[in-house]
Amino acid sequence: MADNQQEGIGNDGADEYVPIAADSYDVDQNAPQAAYEGSGNAKVRIEKWQAERRTIVAHASAPGRLVLRLFNYPLWKVAVNGRMVQTETTEHTGLMIVPIPAGEDRVEIRFVEGWDRKVGALISSLALMATFCLWFRTRKHSGFLIGDR
């Protein structure tokens, strides 16, 4: 797994984490992280490719789209030149497609927390507070407070 990350191949995750109707075995692991498709040509440069953030700069001679070697999960939020855009998904492989206009384009992609992670954090915090309160109350009633002999 570490070799895959260092070589830019990515994670070889379990099938249950692949988007619905996508087949991860059909994804070309040697494909570029971002490739331009359109009637013109483009120079594409990856500025940042981290776990929850990606930044790509493209100089396109005509409007087109960037096909990313990244599954198009709903919690990825994408902005092109500071404006949120609606992404598309490749058939069969489930990769993200980002529409871009002609010219210099800055594509920023970030993974946001879903409601499930927020609720999980709240439940964990409440459980930790309840555990601390019970521990403190038990220590107080048993006469074993710090300084008691």
Secondary-structure map with pairings?
Elements: H1 2-6, E1 34-38, E2 42-49, E3 53-60, E4 64-71, E5 76-80, E6 83-84, E7 88-89, E8 95-100, E9 103-111, H2 115-141
Order of SSEs: HEEEEEEEEEH
For this structure, the quaternary state is single chain
- What strand line-up does the widest sheet have? 2-3-9-5-6
**How many beta-strand runs?**
9
- Note the main sheet: 5 strands, antiparallel
Shape: elongated
Low-pLDDT regions: none
How much of the sequence is in beta strands?
A: 35-45%
Q: How would you explain this protein's 3D organization?
A:
- This protein is α+β, with helices and mostly antiparallel strands.
- It folds into 2 domains: 110 residues, no CATH class; 37 residues.
- It is 21% helix and 36% strand.
- It contains 2 helices and 9 strands.
- The strands form 2 sheets. It has a 5-stranded antiparallel β-sheet, with no helix packed on it. It has a 4-stranded antiparallel β-sheet with strand order 1-4-8-7, with no helix packed on it.
- Strand 7 and strand 8 form a beta hairpin.
- The longest helix has 27 residues.
- It is elongated and about 75 Å long.
- The protein starts with a helix and ends in an 8-residue tail after the last helix.
- The relative contact order is 0.15.
- The mean pLDDT is 86.
